Amino acid sequence: MNNTIFISLASYCDDMLEFTLKSAFNSAKNKENIFFGVVDQNHVNSRDTIKSLEFSNQIRYCHIFPDDSLGVSWARHLCFSLYNNEEYFLQVDSHTYFEENWDENLIIQYKTLLGKSSKPIISTYPYGFSIEENNEITFKKPSGKYILVLRPKSEQILTTEDLVLRFKAEHVLSNEAILGCHIAAGFLFAKGSFIEEIPYDPYLYFHGEEQSLAIRSYTKGWDIYHPTWIPLYHLYKKSGTKYDSHHWSGDISKQRDFEWTYLQKRAKERIKKLINGELNHSIYGLGNVRTIKQYIDFSKIDYFNLTFK
Hints:
About 25% of the residues lie in helices and about 25% in strands. It has helices at about 15-25, 45-50, 70-80, 100-115, 195, 210-220, 260-275, 290-300, and strands at about 5-10, 35-40, 60-65, 90, 95-100, 120-125, 130, 135-140, 145-150, 165-175, 180, 185-190, 225, 230-235, 300, 305-309. It has eight helices and 16 strands.
């Protein structure tokens, strides 16, 4: 096989997009195999900047004005449309720093998991990196002794009207990947066929996108593994800045025809319909390899009795 990798990058008013593109390309061992699908939701069209990059022929770029954006799931749905049959698929956020030879690392991890599953997914929350005043990149490499396992935050309450959960990463001592029940949208690596089998639901907004991916993947026969090593890092917050670039923040949210509260409410309804099997007529519904009950038994998240452990 050709070992090509399609990287999905949905960027929202992010001045780190070019940084991420360069980091991914320059740090890859096999640069000719790296292809990007970029949906840039920004006031400024960066097409000329993209064209000036030495690897511009490996970038598929789409510009959307922030006024017209309907959220991250909608944007990632558009990213998926830029896929062109690459062998592997990687999804990260547009503020990500890559280690040297990250591509080889992920492919090796994936092939190792093929001994356990025919359709493995590698996913967890990435560790963070920082940018110092002198623009130096700093991060702390994980020890390699612990796996970041994703579990619901314990203080939450499920209700019949709101089945959306927020998750956290728990450190679990292990020297091999751990089978998990949840997907981290900021780091997801799988076969390229994932894009066609688990298309992003554009009717979701922000919270709930990871639940949708995890439940649909599991019921369609995919297995989620939290890895021993994550060869990339996420910028969770710039030092000295406010969280003002979220889709629901700032004056721009007032200019849209669709308020974020409407999009959020619609997303909650969407998750409820997914879990209750009301979307099974569509490509965004449950699979038929495993049942939602099997997912509940496996994950210990009981969406029907509104409890989780």
